[in-house]
């Protein structure tokens, strides 16, 4: 098991319940694969450095998780097809 930081940028027009649904879905993927969520931090709506899919803002969420290194590729694939997620970054911290 390794420690990872996952930052996702979610579409800015989602309401709070839809944002929580996306967060719970990502948490579910990690825990189903045997990982642990150490911390979830919602940074809120922030301005993007450049326009992505014609959006100038996004809702940022940080996850600190512990999971198997082999699962990061599957998580990458799942996030790529999750429609409300504009961008994401998975970084190993140890």
Please tell me about this protein's structure.
- The chain has 94 residues and is an alpha+beta fold.
- Helices cover 29% and strands 50% of the residues.
- A four-stranded antiparallel beta sheet has the order 2-3-1-4, with helices on one face.
- A hairpin with a 2-residue loop joins strand 2 and strand 3.
- It is globular.
- It starts with a strand and ends with a strand.
- The mean pLDDT is 94.
- Count up the helices: 2
Main beta sheet: 4 strands, antiparallel
Q: Tell me the strand order in the biggest sheet.
A: 2-3-1-4
Helical content stands at 25-40%
Distance, first to last CA: 10 Å
Mean pLDDT reading: 94
For the secondary structure, the number of strands is 4
Low-confidence stretches: none
Structural class: alpha+beta
Order of helices and strands: EHEEHE
Q: What is the alpha-carbon Rg in Å? A: 13 Å
Beta-strand content bin: over 45%
């Amino acid at each position: 098991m390794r420690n990872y930081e996952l930052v996702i940028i979610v579409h800015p027009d989602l309401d709070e319940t839809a944002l929580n649904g996306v967060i719970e879905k990502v948490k579910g993927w990690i825990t189903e694969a045997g990982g642990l969520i150490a911390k979830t931090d919602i940074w809120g709506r922030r301005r993007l450095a450049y326009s992505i899919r014609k959006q100038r803002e996004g809702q940022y969420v940080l996850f600190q998780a512990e999971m198997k290194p082999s699962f990061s590729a599957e998580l990458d694939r799942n996030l790529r097809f999750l429609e409300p997620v504009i961008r994401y970054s998975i970084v190993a911290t140890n």
